[in-house]
Design goal:
The structure is a homotetramer. Chain A is of the alpha/beta class and about 400 residues long. The first copy, chain A, has helices at about 15-25, 35-50, 65-75, 90-100, 120-125, 150-160, 210-220, 230-235, 245-265, 265-285, 315-325, 350-365, 375-385, and strands spanning about 55-60, 80-85, 105-110, 135-140, 140, 145-150, 165-170, 190-195, 205-210, 290, 300-305, 330, 340-345. In chain A, the strands form 3 sheets. Chain A has a 7-stranded mixed beta sheet with strand order 1-9-8-7-4-2-3, with helices on both faces. In chain A, strands 10-11-13-12 form a 4-stranded antiparallel beta sheet, with helices on one face. The first copy, chain A, has a two-stranded antiparallel sheet with strand order 5-6. In chain A, a hairpin with a 4-residue loop joins strand 5 (about 140) and strand 6 (about 145-150). In chain A, helix 5 (about 120-125) runs parallel beside helix 6, helix 10 (about 265-285) runs antiparallel to helix 13 (about 375-385) and helix 11 (about 315-325) packs across helix 12 (about 350-365). Chains A, B, C, D: This is Serine-pyruvate aminotransferase.
Chain lengths: ~400, ~400, ~400, ~400
């Protein structure tokens, strides 16, 4: 009965029971005042999670990909120039989306496993004295490689160049799990989804717009309708969406925000770092290396683990599914077959994480890798013991 | 505890328990084969509900509005001409969306309460000898006015003119509740959502494309990414979505399709006609009239009921919510304040429907309308008694 | 999909969504402190619902019948004399249980439809100068006949005779729905179950013992083990049961108590009276009579409705189930075939109740009774309109 | 969010999602035919799980303790003699219950950790030439010590003595998890509950009676009402219970039986042996010993693990709860403080079990025991790898 095993994919995450129940709501009239009592706490709560005082929050029945499209289509015109680095599958996809919308993307090719090249950004921005670049895209956490980037450094590059370009950040696999500072970093659009740090099913694109981005939306001419933030804002002003909202999912978000904010967002972040550290110690105990090039870019929500040359890392994922009923993540794009990924975000305990590590060990041993059974588990156990979690018990 | 009252809005509908449970699924890996076992039955089942042999089905984490955008952006180029009638709020919104995408919409203004003017369409199409018109838009069931249109007549108009324009049909509030014939009517794109006839929460845009529409998508240049059907098809070929799919909602759709197809789609249609007839008899007993101009355009999923001049119909909806905990639909757009709407689609029994009629009676009486308590209930009771439903009991 | 129709049986009642979710709890360790946080609020809350300061509350994984057995076996000895009236099926069954336990039951035969004969009790108690009678049994609300009895009058009879017998009250279908005063009425044991006023599934016997009954339990010699209150008390003292407790059901009870006590128990009682009054007005409008002999004994949780001579009232119940998917209660025992019952307790709105009345009308008309469709509905509508409920909306 | 950790208590077990959903059923009329469609498959399915062709199955809203009381009170008379061994907490409690019912219990004191002394039984039965002994009690699996007994040997002892006593078996923690043969072993009454092998919440006593036990019930004079099997049988004959049945729990049982019988009861048994073997190898790797005296009595549903002298084993359980949010079982009765227990029955995967072992290791290390982290995990991993499970995936 494999459903009872936790999942170890980098989202969707394991869902707390209380959130599942909140999502599974009987039908209500989405035009009644009840919906307003769900909607506005969601907007306020997301703003807090983003560490912003003033971000304009929009939530669409969509996914993070729809959030990217919201960011672009509401702020830009066909032919506008955008600066982006390609250092993983998700930055790659975002660049592709820009090109489909007729944007001119200045791509900085960056090795997968590395973070965003803030220095190169700085140089390019400095050189762009005509301010052709309208937006700098930044993927905060590359889910494909388990690499986080230094968004503050990107902001610093913009500031150093005194460049007016907007800063758009894909925080799909970081927001609500890793430190994210909308205001402090001068983010203009932040994008995320429901199925990662918010511990919900997929189905919501969640975006935050700065005042500057809002202003840009007034003149942007890329066609948009479903993702139009002005329609959405008009809806919110009447406790509504411009179309039928996903009420249950919004109710789940409201409860997820209650859980996260009650815990304290910095405690949530620390919890993710703690769990992730155990995983990384296990990887080291196995004698393996992360795809992430250096500790400063280690992601706290997903680890992409390199397997030896000649070994197909995807076999681990298939084997785990078929033999142990456990889900890990495959390598994507440039690192397909070279890494397998362990997601460690959302609702996760030491106990759950250790079972994932134990399963990975069995799979690797089954497939002929020279892994000492129990070695990674022991390394994580040692860390978890020495750094006990604050146990959060669901109220009965 | 008002949540236990049924809702009488024209969607989202009341949800059968089994469908709610199917939606409330623990997290699985959406890249594992399990998801394929959910996805493909959904595609096949939707095709059957559309009465099509060959439609290409696409399902997006979105809503019907996103379905419209999928239809337009995958098949058209900026500046293309589209023919559309405006006879209610939803046709109005679709026209607006076309205009935002730079399409040239030839609008046939049609009185709200009337169906699509197939004769006018015929004349226009005949006159369009250069075939400037690329697409004819048709709203099958205007949710705002409770009016259905004759899609077969629109097809006949196209055929009579020997016009190659594609036929796009908004079936959001008709598909899976009222007779819809994708193949027989020569529909090129059909659009619906999850929260109406499929009895699910909002969150899915469901569209069907004909081969002709698929061919058009190969050269269409409107920008698209999230709603790109080619990406989606590539995903399906690998049992996946191009982004994270809403697994629980898809699982719910699979179960909803099982329920609908087990019942038989024609039985589902007859069930809706039966319930709707009772509602219409109640309206007549109250001495009121429908917004729909004539019996041939009466919708079987929603009735918009005109209230006397000088009376604000929206008060009924507010009063029902505040005093009786019951949801009806307000009038929208041109008929705001002039009608209130009773939704009668999806999971609904005689017993539930009678409670809605009884509530409407109390509300109208409370607000000073000259309504005889029990009169509409009695009219519906008489009809339901004489035409008993096939009781469908959920298996325990 | 008949499951979505409300039920109109005199328990189990319709369950609020929040209570169903509270019951559906993942497994926890019932020996962990979490269980204590469920258990003790249940004991305290039940005591409040009983309007007692000092009752000792015991909750068993059982039903009301088990509650009766708890009352008898913990307080009596084989051969003890008990006074009881037989005025319905449940008093009949309790008498039978006494006899099986070797008790000597002094039965006062009372017409079904009448309340307890407090006057006869008074005479008998007065005559029992040797105080042979150890316990007076009283069924507060005869579910079979829809008859409530005057427990205060029974207490007065005891007091007038200065008789030391204990007073045991079956409040299965009254407690948490109708006025019940453990302390004021000098009740020694009160018995109820989970599936009536507490709006839970069946599965709990809930009893309250006075200090006097506790004292009696110290010397009572009837054999008992599962229902031993001493074992249970020892368990409670350690946050436990003497065996595995039904944790989810207890968690549901905790939430039900929160709902009831937040509403205010007197408001709960008034709500039941209000709904019941509408039902009784409908019955009168149909030209039918209640089994209950006079207004002072009308039950506010269930109405047993007499049908004309020669008509089998059970046919209504069968027909409602088969044709309309609605559950009413059949007549039991002496009134089998002579009455059908409409339960109106627990989680119920005007809207739900009207649907039950409308269904009853259709059934009676279908079966040839001379019932004017809509007549009972109109009578109830009129009353409900004039006496609007306080709408209680579940918090989202 | 500790609720998402599996529990490792010897029942209630972890519940498969499908079973939880089956239990969480909206209210139906328990007197309608729907209930019969739940009830009879339950009775038939339990009979199959017991490996019986003809056992009479009774299910009460109660627990295993109520099942014992059912066994005794329906078959015996005050003063009857019963033979029983005391080798753990549950046999101890059953003996106590017999004494409370006025039975004369011939107790064979047996060291905790040992199985039933079939040889001593044989001698006693042989000596009982007057057949004073009416029933032999046997606890198949002592949950307190993790010891199973040889019921076939007890039957052989009865047969060898040609003794007519009935054989009553407590299979609470063995039935539906370990091999149990009602017919082959000549069992007269088998007792179990819902919360162990059936993977349900607590709340059902489940018993099977042989024809011989049924005959005994016709003359047995111990008082009984709630647990009277004759009333229950009369109820079943009308698709009912003699009181309100716990419908949702019965529906859950029906689904649990479907799961178990689809898997095949011998496969279920093998699955438990496999998981248990991994646990025992872990215990050995820790250098610890089981309470169970020898491999032939090792239980496949629970292991009681002895800790070193001077160490309070209960601290492990408290620590696991407080620090890791994990539930193990404490030692009970004679072995309180000397053992802690790991339950390994019901819905459990390798992955879940390994997380339990990893947690136990951390707890023991935290509390100063000389345990090598990862050692037990590795031992179990090695076994599970070499003996892969048949993965049972819940149908979506």
């Amino acid at each position: 009965m494999s459903f009872q095993n936790p999942v170890f994919i980098p989202g969707p995450t394991n869902m707390p029971e209380a959130i599942r129940q909140a999502c599974s709501m009987p039908t209500i009239d989405h035009r009644s005042p009840i919906f307003g009592n769900i909607l506005h706490p969601c907007l306020d709560g997301v703003r807090k999670v983003l560490k912003s005082e003033s971000a304009h929050i929009f939530i669409f029945p969509s996914t993070g990909t729809g959030g990217w499209e919201t960011a672009l289509s509401n702020t830009l015109n066909s032919g506008d120039t955008v600066l982006a680095a390609r250092n993983g599958m998700f930055s790659h996809r975002w660049i592709d989306m820009c090109q489909r919308h007729g944007l001119d993307v200045q791509v900085v090719e960056t090795p997968w496993g590395h973070g965003l090249p803030a220095d190169e950004y700085a140089a390019i921005l400095k050189a762009d004295t005509n301010h052709k670049i309208k937006v700098v895209l930044a993927t905060h956490n590359e889910t494909a490689t388990g690499v986080k980037s230094d968004i503050a450094a990107v902001r610093a590059a913009l500031d150093a160049a005194n460049h007016p370009a907007m800063l758009f950040v894909d925080g799909v696999s970081s927001i609500a799990s890793m430190d994210f500072r909308f205001d402090a970093w001068g983010v203009d659009v932040a994008v995320t989804g429901s199925q990662k740090g918010f511990m919900l099913p997929a189905g919501l694109a969640i975006v935050g717009f700065s005042d500057k981005a809002m202003t840009a939306s007034e003149t942007a001419t890329l066609p948009r309708a479903f993702f139009d933030i002005k329609d959405m804002q008009n809806g919110y002003d009447n406790n509504a969406f411009p179309y039928t909202p996903p009420v249950g999912l919004m109710n789940g978000l409201k409860h997820a925000l209650d859980l996260l904010l009650d815990e304290g967002i910095d405690n949530v972040i620390a919890r993710h770092t703690r769990i992730a550290t155990g995983v990384r110690l296990a990887v080291a105990a196995w004698g393996l290396e992360l795809c992430a090039a250096s500790p400063d870019v280690y992601s706290d929500t997903v680890s992409a683990i390199k397997t030896p040359d000649g070994f197909n890392a995807t076999d681990i994922v298939t084997h785990a599914d078929q033999v142990y009923g456990v889900a890990f993540g495959v390598g994507l794009g440039d690192v397909a077959g070279k890494v397998f990924r362990i997601g460690h975000l959302g609702s996760l305990t030491d106990v759950m994480m250790l079972s994932g590590l134990a399963t990975a060990e069995m799979c690797m041993a089954d497939l002929g890798l020279n892994i000492k059974l129990g070695s990674g588990v022991a390394a994580a156990q040692e860390y978890y013991r020495a750094n006990p979690a604050a146990i959060i018990k669901d109220a009965a």
